[in-house]
Design brief:
Length: 334
């Protein structure tokens, strides 16, 4: 996945690129894709203030959603993993609501941590959460240092050559507008015609937007005004001051910001691999046998309602899956 880096040049139009980019560009780890994401995250849902904003629990004391052991799923855990009673899980704690350090600056908290803890517990194990830089998890998994990764990893066909996956969220991109904006929906290319949209340069979302813009111009519709900013505060200022109509980027971090300050609203969701579906999945070393247990454990959490409560707690209900799939179709290999 390509990182959601922002470049300056607000208001500049971006020249067209190959239409194939939208289907083939790999996505970035959203936990590292929003450089301006502010650290801010009780159970099962966040509380609401009089302003409409929600307060997320980012303290190290997490009153997590309780779960039960699924004996059938637990029986699927390979002996090599369950012999010490722990599940070692790599998480990248760098952007809420996915994963971030708590107010003590050392305890990882967030949606990915809650899913990892719940999965381990439903398999009769104790989660050992290991804070890990995004660049380090592949080697850690291959070496056996980490038994699983739950860190917003998107399934790709290239990654499936080395890793096995059990899906637990849909990978979504979101269009967000100022909370009092007259823009109410973005469902297709025509809805962005003539809009001033903030997007990260070199990202999958930019490729999608470029493709939509080309479709619009071919139909005689107004072009998109692409805006690029070096930092998140400048992007926020542009949107709140009315110099931009929309932002388009990873939904998870944008949803967190919208819930936290009530200054923006979701007006449209797009599959992260548009026009293809993209899946976020628990990741393990290929052939180590754990993904079957992970899939069964995740499906237990989905069926008993625990999973929905966890996603709701962190404002990610819009990315919920109906079931966990084992090695689902991945985004195409470059």
């Amino acid at each position: 996945m390509a990182r959601n880096t922002l470049k300056s040049g607000a208001g500049a139009l971006k020249p067209g690129v190959s239409l194939a980019l939208a289907a083939t560009t790999l996505l970035a780890l959203s936990a590292c894709s929003d450089p301006g994401a502010a650290a801010a995250g009780n159970t099962p849902t966040a509380s609401s203030s009089s302003s409409g904003a929600k307060t997320f629990n980012l303290s190290p004391q997490q009153d997590r959603v309780p779960v039960t052991v699924d004996e059938a799923a637990a029986a699927l855990v390979p002996e090599a993993i369950k012999k010490d009673g722990k599940l070692t899980v790599a998480v990248s704690p760098f952007a809420p609501p996915l994963a971030v350090y708590a107010t003590d600056n050392k305890t990882p908290v967030g949606n990915e941590v809650d899913i990892a803890v719940a999965l381990a517990q439903t398999l009769g194990l104790e989660a050992e959460i290991v804070p890990t830089a995004w660049a380090d998890w592949p080697l850690g998994v291959e070496s056996g240092k980490y038994e699983a990764v739950l860190s917003n990893v998107t399934v790709t066909e290239e990654r499936k050559l080395k890793y096995d996956f059990a899906s637990y969220r849909d990978d979504k991109l979101g269009f967000y507008a100022k909370s009092d904006s007259g823009v109410t929906k973005v469902e297709s290319a025509a809805d962005v015609a003539g809009k001033r949209i903030i997007v990260g340069s070199g990202t999958n979302q930019e490729a999608i937007l470029l493709r939509w813009d080309e479709e619009n111009k071919a139909k005689g519709l107004k072009p998109v005004e692409f805006q690029y900013y070096d930092d998140d505060s400048a992007s926020n200022l542009a949107l709140q001051s009315g110099r931009a109509d929309l932002t388009f980027g990873p939904n998870a971090t944008a949803a967190y910001k919208a819930a936290s300050d009530a200054k923006t609203k979701l007006v449209g969701l797009v599959d992260g691999g548009w026009p293809l579906k993209a899946s976020i999945a628990a990741t393990t070393k290929k052939g180590n046998g754990f993904t079957a247990a992970a899939q069964a454990g995740l499906n237990h959490l989905i069926e008993d309602g625990s999973y929905a409560k966890i996603l709701d707690r962190w404002g990610l209900s819009s990315e919920a899956v109906q079931k966990s799939d084992l090695n689902p179709a991945g985004l195409p290999k470059k």
